[in-house]
């Protein structure tokens, strides 16, 4: 994760210091954010881990508990932070985030306006995309939610690239000080069409807007509003399907401990098999291969992404 400290901008390329935020990785679906404090301990099912043992270790290292079990200490990248952050609102996940960053054409040096900070999932990725010279100005009407997001950005060392403000952009629009200065605008609002006129004023010529909406009725209203000053209006739905890759044994004659392994058909011959056949059968029972199958739980619909480009006058 990027840091406000110039000497610590690439935290994943340096060693862990006291006060750093690390992601404790147990397995792909069990991770936890921890702030390193000398004298503190982390206790989980693997045992007790002392923070003092972590200081000076490189990110990505494996550390042992008092029981001899281990976890990995990972740098808090935007992708990992999305998986461990506190859900104050519905969040965007990696599939939608990568699509948004790409289609909004966010590059280093860009100025991005975001309405609907929420849990800050997208904001962290936008900050990394605009660094080291750009900035993300994010707005949320809920004061406590904005304060919590501000604290998270500070923990991640992103305050240099993100400014959080409390504002009802749906009713008041964006501040006039950004008029004609934004490269991109992102809207995550219940009624995004109300913020479309203000967004058009904020964007530079040929700037891009994106609106995230969970319901197609919201998309229809937004597209109607966008036709006034925008062109190239397109809506997408991003669906992610993951696969499990694992070793599977074939020809098992034992119990059903192979996790769905294919059984060898029963032999119809009454004669006792020869020693060579027995050896071949033994080899067949130990045969395994690598197979891939879709995960039983596939993440479905999250929302619709509508993109539009400001029409040049």
From TrEMBL:
It comes from the Eukaryota. S-adenosyl-L-methionine binds at residues 119-122, 140, 168, 188. One of its GO terms (biological process) is tRNA methylation. Its main location: nucleus. Keywords: Methyltransferase, Nucleus, S-adenosyl-L-methionine, Transferase, tRNA processing. InterPro entries: SAM-dependent_MTases_sf, TRM61_C, tRNA_MeTrfase_Gcd14. This is tRNA (adenine(58)-N(1))-methyltransferase. Its EC number is 2.1.1.220. GO terms for cellular component: nucleus; tRNA (m1A) methyltransferase complex. Residues 70-309 form the tRNA (adenine(58)-N(1))-methyltransferase catalytic subunit TRM61 C-terminal domain. Residues 254-295 are annotated as: Disordered. SUPFAM superfamilies: S-adenosyl-L-methionine-dependent methyltransferases. It is found in: Nucleus.
């Amino acid at each position: 994760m990027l840091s406000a400290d110039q000497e610590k901008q690439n935290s994943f390329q340096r060693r862990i210091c006291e006060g750093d935020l690390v992601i404790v990785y147990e397995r792909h679906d069990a991770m936890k954010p921890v702030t390193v404090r000398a004298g503190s301990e982390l206790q989980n099912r693997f045992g007790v881990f002392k923070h003092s043992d972590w200081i000076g270790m490189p990110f990505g290292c494996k550390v042992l508990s008092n029981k001899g079990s281990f976890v990995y200490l990972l740098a808090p990248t935007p992708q990992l932070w999305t998986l461990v952050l506190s859900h104050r609102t519905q969040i965007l996940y990696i599939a939608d985030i990568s699509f948004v960053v790409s289609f909004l054409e966010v590059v280093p040096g860009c100025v991005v306006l975001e309405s609907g900070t929420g849990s800050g999932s997208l904001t962290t990725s936008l900050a990394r995309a605009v660094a080291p010279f750009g900035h993300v100005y994010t707005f949320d009407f809920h004061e406590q939610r904005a304060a919590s997001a501000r604290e998270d950005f500070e923990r991640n060392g992103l305050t240099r690239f993100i400014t959080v403000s409390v504002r009802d952009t749906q009713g008041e629009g964006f501040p006039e000080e950004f008029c004609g200065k934004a490269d991109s605008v992102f809207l995550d609002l219940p009624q995004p069409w109300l913020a479309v006129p203000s967004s058009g004023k904020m964007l530079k010529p040929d700037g891009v807007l994106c609106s995230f909406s969970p319901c197609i009725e919201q998309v229809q209203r937004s597209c109607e509003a966008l036709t006034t000053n925008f062109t190239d209006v397109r809506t997408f739905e991003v669906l992610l399907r993951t696969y499990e890759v694992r070793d599977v044994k074939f020809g098992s004659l034992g119990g059903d401990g192979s996790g769905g392994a294919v059984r060898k058909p029963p032999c119809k011959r009454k004669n006792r098999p020869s020693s060579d056949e027995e050896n071949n059968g033994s080899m067949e029972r130990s045969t395994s291969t690598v197979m891939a199958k879709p995960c039983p739980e596939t993440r479905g619909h999250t929302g619709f992404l509508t993109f539009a480009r400001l029409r040049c006058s």
